[in-house]
């Protein structure tokens, strides 16, 4: 079967290539600290190296890959302190988001959000973690859109992508039951226009201690390397 080709330098072609490589980076298909073989990656994606390098440079700026002298592009680290910093940033960002949403969201918009949360509660707790995480991200992005501020939306999309893998592991470890109940409490606080309670709920909902993140990352490393072993056996 022919592979997709992204070699044309049109905006659409580069956008598709960017999405493909970013997905690989988000999933840690590029192992932490591993040199990215541009020749092999270009062959895999059926693309020339010039647009590929352009995309890798953009992903480096965004924090999805890194670069080392004499090694080229390498997989980003899966580092507990860095992930903790991203969670800390996300917590501050989402506290600002719910403050703005509290002021600006209409009752009709909150009706729609509550209905979506209540429907998502019917999804079984043992459902695929990818689906559970998608529901969780949908809720938080919905909060950001209630602000009417695209900078909030873009910033949250960026930080979500960088911690997506860790949150996926977190969902596999049983966060689901807590998550949905907390979402509903956040919606109720929005309805009450209770900013003080919202700040407390969001900080608790998002916050993670460094030791908790370290445990999740330990599982993440096992997942990355066991995944390769299973693919080799397939």
Automatic annotation (TrEMBL):
<keyword id="KW-0804">Transcription</keyword>
<dbReference type="InterPro" id="IPR036388">
    <property type="entry name" value="WH-like_DNA-bd_sf"/>
</dbReference>
<dbReference type="InterPro" id="IPR036390">
    <property type="entry name" value="WH_DNA-bd_sf"/>
</dbReference>
<keyword id="KW-0805">Transcription regulation</keyword>
<dbReference type="InterPro" id="IPR008920">
    <property type="entry name" value="TF_FadR/GntR_C"/>
</dbReference>
<dbReference type="Pfam" id="PF00392">
    <property type="entry name" value="GntR"/>
</dbReference>
<dbReference type="InterPro" id="IPR000524">
    <property type="entry name" value="Tscrpt_reg_HTH_GntR"/>
</dbReference>
<feature type="domain" description="HTH gntR-type">
    <location>
        <begin position="11"/>
        <end position="78"/>
    </location>
</feature>
<keyword id="KW-0238">DNA-binding</keyword>
<dbReference type="GO" id="GO:0003700">
    <property type="term" value="F:DNA-binding transcription factor activity"/>
</dbReference>
<dbReference type="Pfam" id="PF07729">
    <property type="entry name" value="FCD"/>
</dbReference>
<protein>
    <submittedName>
        <fullName>GntR family transcriptional regulator</fullName>
    </submittedName>
</protein>
<dbReference type="InterPro" id="IPR011711">
    <property type="entry name" value="GntR_C"/>
</dbReference>
<dbReference type="GO" id="GO:0003677">
    <property type="term" value="F:DNA binding"/>
</dbReference>
